[in-house]
Amino acid sequence: MTADDPGRAANRLDTLTSWNADWRGLRVAVLGVGVTGFAVADTLTELGAEVLVLAPDVDDDRARILDVIGARLVRHPLDAVPDELVAFAPDVVVASPGFHPDHAVLGWAGSEGVAVWGDIELAWRVRDKVNAAEWILVTGTNGKTTTVQMTATFLAANGLRAAPCGNIGVPVLDAVRDPAGFDVLVVELSSYQLHTLPTTGPGAVHPWASVVLNLADDHLDWHGSFEAYRAAKAKVYENTKVACVYNRADEATLRMVEDAEVEEGARAIGFGLDVPGPSDFGVVDGILCDRAFLDDRRTAALELTTLDELEPRGLAAPHVVANILAASALARSHGVPVGVIHDALAEFRLDAHRIETVAVAGGIRWIDDSKATNPHAAEASLKAFGRVVWIVGGLLKGVDADSLVAAHVGRLRAAVVIGRDRAELVDAFRRHAPQLPLFEVVADDTEQVMPDAVALAAAVAEDGDTVLLAPAAASMDQFADYGDRGRRFHEAVRAMLGGEADGDSAPHEPPAEG
């Protein structure tokens, strides 16, 4: 059976819905050999498939491991269809997230009738290796990782084996193959992963619960349009069994729920920062409430926690509160008591580079929100503070930041613009706030960008101000990732302040940027 016989190949693929199915001899081409691609190759060789890995760059250690597990490696720039791939005649191609839909290899697969999967479809098909855990799916433009971590924390606090995985940095295939097994997988999904995910047939995921946290322009350079980006995100709601959680402040997420084909009995659960209605989560007089998972929800509510309790833990910023409400809704759908959620929040801490206080000195607070890699995330960060010296810029990924600048110039003391796409931001500031002190960091040397930005910010910041790194852009123009950008900000602030800081927080490793 080869790509020359697509009918037989398709019939066989339809039977591959279990770890215990017969995967032997299946010919699979794996595109990319990063964390996800390697997990795919490792899984398939363990299942007895014939695996051909194609990647432009592979370090020697990983190449040796691929040889040991029995996968064949072809180093190729993938700017065209490799001859080795054509000769291999795969039954299925598994593409790592980020391979563009019009990539030459994917175009070839389509023309040859070869199925194209992503790692999520493969993981769903083999989810029963140890035990078939329930899946909870989380996506959105911003807040995914925090919500996934919170949801898994709440579930674990209730005695369940819960694994945060997916785009958070741990491949779902690794969680599926964990020999101890899990009760629930809380899966962060990027729009890239969702693009290839089917909504019907044997590879379609049927999650316990799902959420789209919010929707704003992002990755438009990859998807081609906002409509295509929205369509990818909306897939998480398809086939949901218990709870479709949506953002009451973002009508697009409600429309997604209304349009989704779900299993009978699935409920729509809203969350928001306002007073909740029945079947909603929200905030009343500073109290975070559940009006969804109780019998008398039309006349009563259950208390989760309060803003006063969250404030000293750094969890009271509006966008963080929204994440708490979404995670609580997901956990409550799985039966976690409100008291367990309350107590778990007492121990929860945000990851590094998410509205993280670096230092306070001379009445000026220095905040690292390097994870704000798009305008929507930066807006949420800006709203959390009063007078701000804003360090902004990087790779805008085809997104227009003009409206973000226009909406927030009133709270700015000054702006410091970094990154490759500075011109667009500088033009926006000059258009909307011609009197605002505006500085550009022109250094191309990665070592010098943050010291220059911090020095410029320190020169204009005053008592009571916040110097906020919320770039509204990706980091890879000048830094390895958003974590590298944030760490260099920490280092520059501490070098500038010396021993003057009143207090700070040590940086730690973030999950992978995605």
What does the model show?
The chain has 514 residues and is α/β, with parallel strands linked by helices. It has 20 helices and 20 strands. The strands form three sheets. A nine-stranded mixed beta sheet has the order 7-8-6-9-10-11-12-13-14, with helices on both faces. It has a six-stranded mixed beta sheet with strand order 15-16-20-17-18-19, sandwiched between helices. The chain is globular.
| Strand element count | 20
Q: Going across the major beta sheet, what is the strand order?
A: 7-8-6-9-10-11-12-13-14
Number of helices: 20
Give the uncertain stretches in residue-range form. 501-514
Structural class assignment = alpha/beta
Shape: globular
In a nutshell, what does this entry contain?
The protein is α/β, with parallel strands linked by helices. Helices cover 36% and strands 18% of the residues.
Helix and strand topology:
Layout: H1 6-14, E1 27-31, H2 35-47, E2 50-55, H3 60-69, E3 72-75, H4 83-88, E4 92-95, H5 104-112, E5 115-117, H6 119-125, E6 134-139, H7 144-157, E7 162-166, H8 172-176, E8 184-188, H9 191-195, E9 209-212, H10 220-223, H11 226-234, E10 243-247, H12 251-259, E11 267-271, E12 280-284, E13 287-290, E14 302-306, H13 307-310, H14 318-333, H15 338-345, E15 356-361, E16 364-368, H16 375-383, E17 388-392, H17 402-408, E18 412-417, H18 422-432, E19 438-440, H19 446-460, E20 466-469, H20 482-497
Parallel strand pairs: 1-2, 1-4, 2-3, 4-5, 6-8, 6-9, 7-8, 9-10, 10-11, 11-12, 16-20, 17-18, 17-20, 18-19
Antiparallel strand pairs: 12-13, 13-14, 15-16
